[in-house]
Amino acid sequence: MTGRGNNTYLLVGESGEATLVDAGVGNERHLSSIDEALRARSAHLTQVLATHGHSDHVAGAPSLAHRHPQAVFAKFPWPDQDKREVPWQPLAGGDRIDVGGEVLRVVHTPGHSPDHVAFWHAPTAAAFTGDLVIPGVSVMIQWSRGGSMEDYLASLARIVELEPRTVYPAHGPIITDPVGLLKRYIDHRHERERQVIDELGRGRATVSAIADSIYDGLESVLLAAAYENVRAHLEKLKGEGRAVEEHGHWTLATLSSPPRGH
């Protein structure tokens, strides 16, 4: 699910104050490489900013706190999931964070998870986007853990509006055509939604039946993620009044059932 692994980004200011974007998983080689980079720049780690609370982004926080007790750890709150191995300071959308004399702005980008944020550096039009986009693959919207397709699409659009020139994702290579990629992600999700609607129209009424048809031939290890994505699409349609669920069975809403808000 994480491709070749996790990306974390060490930002070092001229004064030697360093910020790490995402904490990784506590791998010893990763921790040592951070220490080596800090020594090479005569820097010290002052803060760790998490894009969201999934384990591959925060599990390394306790190890980092042990090595760098002066560092402050911050993330957008997710009360149902946040663990307290380190004292996380709360972030909010719109917050401005001093990073070695530069400013990162917090952009709340929920969807992949409720607490997901991106960090925006306006002078270079660069964004650190966590799991919002992963080059070469689609992002799982884990409905069972608070994911929301409606929020995810809005978050993609929010970053498009910023017109970034560079995006630093948590997995995969740095993205130098981010607006094009973000728009393709939006188009892909709309196409998946059309496929879900088509499958409902054909009488497939369960998440598994719809996913097995849409993702025909998918490796079994990825089916759980496919089911989560389909459920997230169905919940979006349900919220818009376009689909109905009863005891785990889904159908298209009838014309006599107006969309929510109309």
Summarize the structure.
With 262 residues, this protein is an alpha/beta fold. The chain contains 7 helices and 12 strands.
Unreliable stretches covering 5 or more consecutive residues? none
Judging from the principal axes of the Cα atoms, what is the shape? elongated
What's the architecture of the largest domain, going by CATH?
4-Layer Sandwich
The fraction of residues assigned to DSSP E strands is 15-25%
DSSP strand count: 12
CATH class (first level) name of the largest domain:
Alpha Beta
Would you mind describing this structure in some detail?
The structure is a single chain. The mean pLDDT is 93. With 262 residues, the chain is of the alpha/beta class. It has two domains: 9-176, Ribonuclease Z/Hydroxyacylglutathione hydrolase-like (Metallo-beta-lactamase, Chain A), CATH 3.60.15.10; 190-262, Arc Repressor Mutant, subunit A. The longest helix has 24 residues, at 178-201. Helix 5 (178-201) crosses helix 6 (207-214) and helix 6 (207-214) packs across helix 7. Strands 1-2-3-4-5 form a five-stranded mixed beta sheet, covered by helices on one side. The protein has helices at 28-40, 55-58, 61-67, 149-162, 178-201, 207-214, 223-239, and strands spanning 9-12, 17-21, 44-49, 72-75, 88-90, 96-99, 102-108, 117-121, 126-130, 166-169, 243-246, 249-252. The chain has seven helices and twelve strands. 33% of the residues lie in helices and 21% in strands.
